[in-house]
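Hey,

Quick one before I head out. I ran the complex with zinc ion overnight. Inputs first:
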Amino acid sequence: MIDREQVLHVAQLARLELSEDELERMAHELSGVLDHIERIGELDLDEVAPTSHVVEVENALREDKPRPPLPREVALAAAPLVLQDGFAVPSPQA
Amino acid sequence: MSDPIALSAAEAASRVHAGALDPAELFDAYQSRAAADELNAFTWVAEEPPTATAAMAEGPLGGVPLAVKDLFCTRGVPSQAGSRILQGYEPPYTATAVERLEQAGAPLLGKTNQDEFAMGSSNENSGYGPVLNPWDRGRVPGGSSGGSAAAVAAGLAPWALGTDTGGSIRQPASLCGIVGLKPTYGAVSRYGMIAFASSLDQAGPLTRNVTDAALILGQMVGPRDRCDSTSLEFPESIELPTATRLDGAAIGVPEELSGEGIEDGVLRAFEETLHIAERLGATVKRCRLPHAPHALSAYYVLAPAEASSNLARYDGVRYGLREEAETLLEMYTRTRRDGFGAEVKRRIMLGTYALSSGYYEAYYGRAQRVRTKIVEDFRAAFEDFDLVACPTSPTVAFELGARTGDPLAMYMSDVLTVPMSLAGVPALSLPNGMSDGLPTGFQLAGPPFSENRLLDVAFALEQAIDFDAVPARA
Amino acid sequence: MSDGAATSPNDGLDGFEPVIGLEIHVQLSTATKMFCSCPLSFGEPPNTYTCPVCLGLPGSLPVVNARAIHFGLMIGLALECELAPRSSFHRKNYFYPDLPKGYQISQYDEPLCRGGRLGEVRIHRAHLEEDAAKLVHVGTSGRIHGSDVSVVDFNRGGTPLVEIVTEPDLHDPVRAREWLELLRTTLRQLGVSDVNMEEGSLRCDANVSIRLGGSVALGTKTELKNMNSFRFLERGIRAELARQAELLRAGEPVVQETLHFDPQTGKLSALRSKEEAHDYRYFPEPDLVPIQIDEDMVAAARAQLPELPAARVERYESEFGLTAASARHLAFRVELGAYFEAALAELARAGDGHGGVDAAPVQIDPAVAQQLANWISGELVRRLGEEDPADSRVAPAQLARLVALISQRAITAGAGRQVLDRMVQQGGDPEGIVETEGLGAIASGDEALAGVVAAAIEAHQGAAEKIKAGNAKAMGPIIGYVMRETKGRADGAEVSRLVRAQLGLEN
Ligand SMILES: [Mg+2]
Ligand SMILES: [Zn+2]
């Protein structure tokens, strides 16, 4: 149902590195699950509206009032690498 | 004085209120048990009670300590959601649900083990090792709130907080022989709960009995949380249940959820409980939830899709694990390769695929429409019945490793709990017997905000069933 | 309205017609961010304005800022859009270090506003979303394998944005620039944004294609990213149009791509895309509930709409009789329009509008209004540049009285310019400056003036001969002499009358 190429493409979208072994296994396992899932294809759902929320609430809006932000040392506390008071990462353009 | 561990949470609270039990002593008794945990139920245990124990004792929860599933953010305390990618992560804030319970007088006893990001039905997907079932240490406690369920069942905690996305409170409660309640979606704030699938996740209690569940739930619901847009004000207060009879109660038994694929022992216990209900005055009739057979399929599209997005934030930039690499892309892919376990990767892949260009309508769109049909099915059933009933889990606790090689078989563990999750209705699992020396669970579900009714009916059944089996306490 | 410029902006396109659409991101000037209660940041030290929500910490949840919705509705009304009765948010999924959750919360199939118009340009849609954080390249660091390092500052992350997408209704780079200026003024009038391109609170991308003149089908378009000034927008589009025309002339196809314009070199380069695969996997944001726009919300937004530039242009033309160019100039610079109206009010109050003190409402003589407009957008702006005249030493009432002095011929225009110099530099009343500087107009019939004219003719005999021979243009040097001698206080018409009289010509 889903081949190795598709698995690679999806892994790239999801930013997951998969080993050659994992690729094969993933293709096999996902195919099995998708086979099961595709049974919903049998239902006639043309006239049915999609449900995103089961709660019937609207306009859960917030008043535009500022609250004190986190102290910087707290914001950065769990950062793997801090440089110049910011979260350091390998440059995207590199 | 009698052993405080033998008391239910509600009993302990009322003794503390009466001045007959020292809350610090109560905390110590549980703390030493939790610290000596042999089930791997805890990932962190408090060293001492919070300094405010005396003040807490005056709250409605009487200073009775609380075990909290790892995925609730607790300020300054490891909150890892069972994942290696969050190893050692200490959030700067506390989840609303935990905060409300602390304010109501329940000090934090410890954080409990779970399937990674709540993805699993056996607790074998934890990044911190599996939890063992206190009834049989060769078996799973269920999941994903397996640590919470095992801790309560083994008397390592008086009560615990769990979360339920497709059955993650009810199924481990069933497999561990305790009470588990998934409230109406939106009744308990999700703020500070590390997300699995946002439109399904709901926090709830795991307790030794129905009264304890009512007592703690009453402090979790209430006014809506302004930090959670999907949170709702609970329309009434939660009362401690008192019913002894079920006269006038109409209970529907969905055909689709009470036959095929269910173990004999589980079915037998279920039928017996239905007879008890009738004896107490309830009318029990077959009913239909025609789209329930498709619920699992819809669930395994919607939940992984939301999860694939919710878990995108674990990228090694701001917190958690990071694998250094020369390029940003490699930093991302290696961090996520090493930080996530196999099941989490599988669901991220499944969800990413279901949302990807060209597949959205066939998977996500269709699953959302199935969800509509399931909501309608429940609505129709509740026009004729007060509650619906079915077993919680098709099987009793299975052996460690029995389903790890077959994802689909593992997913089938949720087949009886997922429909209620999709419909957002409250559902409760009540221990109702034993099969092969292991507990079985009886599931009751009602319309949105029918928690009081659910608790009342469960209480009456609980008294009549008189389930008094307790796993050997270490 | 690019009033018959000498060279058309589309010269050199060989009859290809440019088709330009704009995508504008506007930072809203709310007090807090789009989905959390952090204050908006204006250059604070990095990572000092963050919270669990805008850092994307585990377990945090977004909540919509009510004022962002309100501002969105105001923009929708100002752009004559259809306001959605129901609006919702989606997640746009992609990985980038400036995007803390791995998705941007944006609007997709249910935007707040659809289908509007500003001037001659149709609006396709306007929707709300959150801004990304700031990613700064800091060079190499030994700490990450010696590779290039960037640093993320989340202060800006989560700032409310309105994205406005136009239809491809623009057909030359100058108009694109002018239209964006109109949009900026409109948004500034609304008070919903600082709309500053240099500071990034107004950002514009352009979709550019060309087609054979008269053809209906659209050519392949390219996207020009983030040109951070009005000038660069115009230059960037111009450069891209030239590039596309050259490709087509050479028989090569235009490739759909995203381009970056470098204002230093004038060159366009292809940008590497954020997500090579461009599969954003949009799905409804499960952490937010839909927004139901009710009549009260629309009424509240409508109640706060000021007069918008387009309406103001019309009013200046119909009510005060200003020329179209003048009306536009004043209306598109909000502060000039405000100054103009304050000055007009003073003219009316003083009864100097040639309408009489007791006439109510006072009719302003269109000629006076036009003169006032000219003095504001000409002489005053020449002296103040970009400065808001309300912040200058010249009060609107004082400028109004200065213009009144000129229109009543109490002083000449030349003297008026000298008075204005003084007012701008030192402040003060025009009447007082005229008095102390002795700049009052020389009255006609003044003996001294006749003497100065005689001296001027004496000094320019050649010019006098030419005038007598019928060459009126030769009058210049003689008038210039008189003006110098009288410090500009003499009335030009009176001087030329005296010259002709003294030369024995008929007036
Ligand atoms: Mg955008
Ligand atoms: Zn924030």
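Residues 293-368 of chain B form one domain.

Talk tomorrow,
K.
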